[in-house]
Amino acid sequence: MVNRPVWTPLHTRVHRTLQHRQLLKRQERILIAVSGGQDSLCLTKLLLDLQPKWGWQLAIAHCDHRWSKDAGIADHVEQIAHNWQLPFYLQIADYVTQSEGAAREWRYQALTKIAASHSYQYIVTGHTKSDRAETLIYNLIRGAGADGLQALTWQRSLTPDLQLVRPMLEVSRAETFQFCQSFKLPIWEDVYNQDLSYARNRIRQELLPYLQTHFNPQVEQALAQTGELLRADVEYLEQAAQNLRSQAMAITPESINYTQQNSDLSSLNRVVLRDAPLALQRRVLRQFLQAALSIAPTFEQIEQLTFLITAPNRSRTSSLPGGAIASPKTSFYAEVEGNWIIIKKTDL
């Protein structure tokens, strides 16, 4: 007789989340990012138990940063994959980096490479409600807008054929720990999680407990809900901004004549933007700069362009970075010409 997996309320919640949010399709190939910690082990066990209902092909991937205190983790995760009879993939960093941002960027690149090489349609990670709360605080401190405050979303595209999915954003870290304890899962205690020189660890170990004690015992839940509300707002505003930008860049007799005379310039009709709410104006101009110059514009740069919507003719911004299209001898700026905001190039 085949032993059926023990079914817990957490199994039911994640199963319903996958159905309700349509995060993962049936019969797909899914790559699970496993660090060895409690969250990724909880996720792997849940998906393994749900596998008979969904018909997935599961595999485990581990990213080795080559950090000195991580010695042994890769072997530990490989043994877990072996015990659960899952394919295992290991990606080792070419060089050691201590930056949180650089390490995170490399992990996603490494996971994408593994998934593309072995035809996986999804990468799933064990990010939780707790991670969502920490990320919101971290980005708020850094001065991020709504986009940054809702950064941990349920899913996003890594490539046209690959989706990153986070099925546990309504599950707390306390719950994943209890789940691992119940099933006696072999958690690897990452010593770097105790290092308070990392900003996220300080938020986790010091700031959130302080807020829970002195302000709101349910602050983690409250912050996660805020992130979820912002996610829907950002999605709506981004689509509205794309529609408005399309109108501002629509082909008219005037724009055709202008483009023929200035084929190397990017332009935006500011008249279309004048009556729009400020929130949409800013988003349109951010999208415009990203498309024109391949940069992630700062708040100050966006504000300079916002001023040009109603500024006198020939008003201009200060120099703008050119991102991937710039050369050492080239700079860019935006200038008003009649109804148009134009990105111009000048040789230094």
From TrEMBL:
SUPFAM superfamilies per record: Adenine nucleotide alpha hydrolases-like, MesJ substrate recognition domain-like
Residues engaged in binding ATP: 35-40
Catalytic activity: cytidine(34) in tRNA(Ile2) + L-lysine + ATP = lysidine(34) in tRNA(Ile2) + AMP + diphosphate + H(+)
Broad class of the protein's primary localization: cytoplasm
Gene Ontology molecular functions: ATP binding; tRNA(Ile)-lysidine synthase activity
Start and end residues of each tRNA(Ile)-lysidine/2-thiocytidine synthase N-terminal domain: 30-206
GO biological process assignments: tRNA modification
Subcellular location: Cytoplasm
A GO-annotated cellular component: cytoplasm
UniProt cross-references to CDD domains, sorted A to Z: TilS_N
Top EC group: ligase
InterPro entries in the cross-refs: Rossmann-like_a/b/a_fold (IPR014729), TilS/TtcA_N (IPR011063), tRNA_Ile_lys_synt (IPR012094), tRNA_Ile_lys_synt_N (IPR012795), tRNA_Ile_lys_synt_subst-bd (IPR015262)
Pfam families: ATP_bind_3, TilS
EC number per UniProt: 6.3.4.19
Domain tRNA(Ile)-lysidine synthase substrate-binding: 270-323
Keywords: ATP-binding, Cytoplasm, Ligase, Nucleotide-binding, tRNA processing
Domain comment (free text): The N-terminal region contains the highly conserved SGGXDS motif, predicted to be a P-loop motif involved in ATP binding.
Family designation: Belongs to the tRNA(Ile)-lysidine synthase family.
Xref: HAMAP family: tRNA_Ile_lys_synt (MF_01161)
Role noted for this protein: Ligates lysine onto the cytidine present at position 34 of the AUA codon-specific tRNA(Ile) that contains the anticodon CAU, in an ATP-dependent manner. Cytidine is converted to lysidine, thus changing the amino acid specificity of the tRNA from methionine to isoleucine.
Protein name (database record): tRNA(Ile)-lysidine synthase
Organism: Crinalium epipsammum PCC 9333
Gene that encodes it: tilS
